[in-house]
Amino acid sequence: MSEVIPSKDNFTTSAGRQLLLFGILALGGTALLMMALSWATGLTGSTGGAAEGIDPATGTITLVLSEEPPQLNSTLATDQVSGMILGHLMEGLLRYDEHNQLAPGVAERWDIGEQDATFWLREDARWSDGEPVRAQDFVFAWQTALDPANASEYAFILFPVKNAEAINNGELPVDALGVEALDDRTLKVRLERPVAYFDKLVAFATYFPIREAFYKATAGRYGADADTMVYNGPFALTRWIHGAHVRMEKNPYYWNRDRIQIEVIDFPYVTTDPNASLNLFKDQKVAYTGLIEENLNEALEQRWHLHRFMDGSVFFMEFNHREGRPTATYHLRKAMQLALDPAELVYKVVKLPGYLPAESIFPIWLKGVEGTLRQEYPPPKVEMNLQEAQRHLALAKKQLGVSELQPLVLLSGDNPLSNKQSEYYQATLKKRLGLDIRIDKQIFKQRLAKMTSGDFDMVLAGWGPDFDDPLTFADLFASWNLNNRGRYANPELDAQVSIAQNSMDPRTRMDAFGEIQRILIEDAAVLMNYERGVVYVTDPRLNGLVRRAVGPDPDFTHVHIQEG
Fold first, then answer.
1. Residue 144 above 60 pLDDT?
2. Same domain for 145 and 108?
3. What mean pLDDT, rounded, does the chain reach?
4. Quick one: 47 and 116 in the same domain?
5. Mean pLDDT for the stretch of residues 456-464
6. Angle, CA of 197, 200 and 202, to the nearest 5°
7. Last-in-domain residue among 195, 228, 261
8. Omega into 554 within 30° of 0, i.e. cis?
9. Angle in degrees, CA 101, 70, 85, rounded to 5
């Protein structure tokens, strides 16, 4: 899913060893940003012999989770951790293959036009209890996600379906949704408007099927534990000890089970401590982990094979725009925008190889009409200007009717990178603007809850793409998007989002994205931080790991174990 954490799967890394290392890892160019690259420091690394991280005899790979999945109900999940787990347990009409291309999933073929779409389900698609996956399972899941009583923050991603938005607004009953099971294996979808990217949408988790009878039998606990779900993907969840252990075993009823070459994906460790993760890898307890500044040296000394990947996400400081919050004041946001520099944050504070200072809500890899979106629509430049920052701060105080501002609450994650960032903002805004910042450090699940309730002035947040189109970033700050946690509302931006949603013309859509970019920057709606790069190490016997910017990441469903 799209809500991401600063140390995604603990894959935060650092250039702390040498400028040489930073230079090597920075090579590759923007055209390679969506590809997993690697650089060998010498010998492959890791040790031979039987290890708990890899068990060829049982086909088990053992891994560590940085956070427990907050939510495995696909109609409600919003975060990257849940999305990664769901991507192994469930399958939609389409899926992403090992080449990061859309491929048949439950649907063996499909036809998408401007007014409607038809999907023909494969006969051998089965749930983990052997029951067939039916077209009705998709109808129920989509209706459930849109039901206002369900309060799904991702209901909006279904709005291209006829009547979806009206249903979610409580204006129509759920059975008015433009989706119909013509028979058990034929799904007919009527579209609200022509949608240039509908095939990409149906691979997303909110479009996954749910079996109605099973869902209702859980009495409101669907997705809360391993036994309150039934699975139609490559794996089934067989153990979920909250906060401690997640275990997935191969689903014997999965239609493409012969493609799956491992039997078990086991997460017996859940920790936000990257050093603990590295020690597990050193002790051969897990098959892969990420690196941070202080343990990158050790990785080099061990002569491990380092892999590099840029994950497509963008990170920012989001403001609370709700009435009564000081950060709803334009001049206060503008003062902070002019007092901060993303390049300073990346190169002097974060110091992680492959990270780029963020200049826009649109990361640099997104495609435009002929080149990339950012090449065709360069974002407005914001230069640090402390004199102008002070002028805007004075205007903010005057507008708020105060001589001094009360401390501002910065909501932050509980991990090393978030700690660095929040402390940088606290010190820098105090020094340059005299602002007092109170850091509210929370574990991932609680941070999401506070973001949703609006319990913050500012929050360190990130967003990864749901589908391969700029709209996945463009609509994030639309007034109707519940993932817009700060409740930013700008009719001009909403109008441009609507143009991008409804047009089939590439140039018209890209023009709209360019305007959205301009509005967000000029209004200081959010403060950009960075685009994330990751460096990680794996047991050399772990082959076929797929990293991707769009879709479940990392993807272990193509992994095979190489002995020796």
1. yes
2. yes
3. 89
4. no
5. 95
6. 115
7. 228
8. yes
9. 30
Whole-number pLDDT of residue 71 = 86
Is 57 within a domain? yes
Burial (0-12, 13-18, 19+ Cβ within 10 Å), 491:
exposed
Predicted pLDDT of residue 172: 98
**pLDDT tens-digit series, residues 525-555:** 999 999 998 889 999 999 999 998 888 899 9
Strand ranges, E, within 320-387: 356-357
Residues 6+ positions from 511 with CB-CB distance below 8 Å: 499
Q: Are residues 84 and 212 in the same domain?
A: yes
CB-based contact 240:138 (threshold 8 Å): no
Residue 179 phi/psi, 5-degree rounding, is: -140, 135
**Quick one: average pLDDT of 446-466?**
93
Asked if residue 7 has pLDDT above 60, the reply is no
Last residue of a domain, one of 228, 261, 288: 228
* pLDDT tens column, 35-66: 332 322 222 333 333 348 999 999 999 999 98
- Neighbouring residues of 464: CB distance < 8 A, sequence distance ≥ 6: 1, 2, 4, 80, 311, 312, 313, 549
Residue 367 in any domain: the answer is: no
> Going by C-beta distance under 8 Å and a sequence separation of 6 or more, which residues neighbour residue 339?
384, 386, 389, 428, 429, 432, 433
State the residue range of the domain holding 297. 8-64+242-311+535-561
Mean of pLDDT values over 93-119: 96
What's the Cα-to-Cα distance from 446 to each of 67, 140, 270, 297, 411, rounded to whole Å?
A: 11, 30, 16, 33, 10
Per DSSP, the three-state class of 168 is helix
Amino acid 142 reads W
CA distance 521 to 380: 7
- Look at residue 412 and tell me if it is in a domain: no
Cα angle 73-77-78, degrees, rounded to a multiple of 5: 175
Segment 186-221, tens digit of pLDDT = 999 999 999 989 999 999 999 999 999 999 999 999
Q: What pLDDT was estimated at residue 35? A: 30
Residues 359-408 pLDDT 10s: 999 999 999 999 999 999 999 999 999 999 999 999 999 999 999 999 99
Q: Where do we find the tokens 């700008």? A: 490
The number of folded domains in the chain is 2
Q: What gap in Å lies between CA 261 and CA 254, rounded to an integer?
A: 13
End-to-end CA distance of the chain: 36
Distance CA 366, CA 376 (A): 11
d(CA 552, CA 192): 27
Record the tokens describing residue 354, joined without a space: 């492959």
Rg of the Cα atoms in the chain: 23
Q: Is residue 128 part of a domain?
A: yes
